Amino acid sequence: MPRSRQDDSHPWRSFGLGRPGATHKCLTARLHYDDGATEDFALFDGEHFGEWGLGGAADMPKAKLAFKTKSGYSRYFTLTPGRPHRIERIEH
Question: What whole-number distance in Å separates Cα of residue 87 and Cα of residue 2?
Answer without folding.
Answer: 21
